[in-house]
């Protein structure tokens, strides 16, 4: 994951680093500053687990760790990588998902940075 540029964000101090967490079997929550995006948990290309994806907070994009397909988190459109369907992005965040607990410490694959 990459941190959003502090110069592009108003207010003091650096912008918080984007986070991705699994909230249900089918959905991930991507948090970039005050913005929250609920999206499909698996890449439409080869079902890579997006909770381990890299987020570009400046461009509002997520990149799958499996084959590097990149998706716009506003529209779900693929912006680079192997041809595939769009990523399902939900507009509304249901209240019960907003209070989901953070991931457990052992929830990272071997060799992946947290």
Write a structural description.
The structure is a single chain. This protein is mainly β. It has a domain at 16-89: Rieske [2Fe-2S] iron-sulphur domain (Rieske Iron-sulfur Protein, 3-layer Sandwich). It is built from one helix and eight strands. It has one helix spanning 95-98, and strands at residues 19-22, 27-32, 35-40, 54-56, 61-63, 70-72, 78-80, 89-90. Strands 1-2-3-8 form a four-stranded antiparallel beta sheet, with no helix packed on it. Strand 4 (54-56) and strand 5 form a beta hairpin. The longest helix is centred in the C-terminal third of the chain and has 4 residues, at 95-98. The radius of gyration is 14 Å and the shape is globular. The N and C termini lie close together (9 Å). Keywords: 2Fe-2S, Iron, Iron-sulfur, Metal-binding.
């Amino acid at each position: 994951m990459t941190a959003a540029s502090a110069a592009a964000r108003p207010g003091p101090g650096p912008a918080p680093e984007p986070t991705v967490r699994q909230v249900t079997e089918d959905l991930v929550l991507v948090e970039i500053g005050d913005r929250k995006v609920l999206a499909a948990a698996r890449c439409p290309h080869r079902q890579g687990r997006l909770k381990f994806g890299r987020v570009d907070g400046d461009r509002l994009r997520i990149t799958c760790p499996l084959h590097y397909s990149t998706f716009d988190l506003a529209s779900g459109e693929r912006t680079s990588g192997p041809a595939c369907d769009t990523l399902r992005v939900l507009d509304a965040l249901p209240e019960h998902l907003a209070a989901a607990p953070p991931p457990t410490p052992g929830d990272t694959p071997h060799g992946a940075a947290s």
